[in-house]
Design goal:
It contains 6 helices and 8 strands; from the N terminus they run H-E-E-H-E-H-E-E-H-E-H-E-H-E. It has about 210 residues and is α/β, with parallel strands linked by helices. This is tRNA (guanine-N(7)-)-methyltransferase.
Length: about 210
């Protein structure tokens, strides 16, 4: 997700520090950021924010955190959160590899990866959000029952992710190679998902869980 640079973006986000954080100061205090102590679901790469805001509104019994490193994009999510008065949603501008600097081990119940950058060149494989290096991060912050829910229109990334997760020893379930053929009523489409589905792209989806830990 790329948007024109807004010189005032950081000042805008700082003015809304009750719902968005642009540094790592929240470690050990994430749960205190919310009005209610509830399970926490995060979306890594929230884009324009349709998915995470709609999920938060649909599930007030869950606390959501949208993670988007581009401050110019994050502005849009903050605007949605404020305009719709969403109480169970907080936002972070941080890179995915630094999630263990924010969240305590086992603190997260679910991770959503929606339409992540496929990084198609082999030399860029380590940048893919389903690479082993990122799986280690997710494994640390997820609790024993935690899951990753992954959607993409990119067939190459989907096949790579199945292989990467399987080699890591994860259990895969609900693999769907054409999500919109019989779309579940509770599926919330991202802006990207809507656009590319309308162009005829098939949407792939899976759920994955790590090995149980002692």
């Amino acid at each position: 997700m790329r948007m024109r640079n807004k010189p005032w973006a950081e000042d805008y986000l700082l003015a809304h520090d009750d719902i968005v954080s642009i540094d790592l100061a929240r470690k050990d205090h994430i749960i205190d950021w919310f009005e209610e102590k509830q399970p926490i679901h995060i979306e890594v790469g929230s884009g324009m924010g349709r998915f995470i805001t709609e999920m938060a509104k649909a599930n007030p019994h869950i606390n959501y955190i949208g993670i988007e490193r581009d401050k110019n994009v994050m502005i849009r999510i903050v605007e949605k959160t404020v305009d719709q008065n969403i109480k169970n949603l907080r936002l972070l501008t941080v890179d995915a590899e630094k999630l263990t600097d924010i969240f305590n081990p086992g603190e997260i119940d679910r991770i959503y990866l929606n339409f992540s950058d496929p990084w198609p060149k082999t030399r860029h494989a380590k940048r893919r959000l389903t690479h082993e290096n990122f799986l280690k991060v997710y494994e640390t912050i997820l609790n024993n029952d935690g899951e990753i829910h992954f959607k993409t229109d990119n067939q190459g990334l989907f096949e790579y992710s199945i292989e990467s997760m399987s080699h890591y020893g994860m259990k895969l379930k609900n693999i769907n190679l054409n999500l919109h053929e019989q779309e579940p009523a509770d599926n919330i489409r991202t802006e990207y998902e809507e656009k590319f589905s309308n162009k005829g792209f098939r949407i792939n989806r899976l759920e994955a869980k790590f090995r149980e830990r002692d």
